[in-house]
Specification:
Elements: H1 22-34, H2 39-48, H3 59-83, H4 87-109
Helix pairs in contact: 1-2, 3-4
Amino acid sequence: MSRPMKNEDELRIHQVNIRLTEIENVYAKQQAQLTALSVANWMRNSAFSKRALVQKVSPMHREYYKQLVGLSNNINQISRKINQNQFPKIYEEIINVKTLLVEINKLFHS
């Protein structure tokens, strides 16, 4: 089965050729890769879109974010316990936070 035909106003029949410096070319390729687009589509979207292009988040960065969210939750729990005068339980929480920090450090250096 073939692809349905586009309407006449959707067809891209005009071609524009531009010349780029080496630095501009490298930048365009990097930005296209970050947004998971081809260079042509990135340039088209950059030129005609009114909203900023969103960079694609790598799975590694997503994992870092999850680790940091977990760490911030632990810090909030510790501060809540300090404010409630639950000092004996704080040591255990501090050890948990230290363990998480060591894991995050290993992720950054692996």
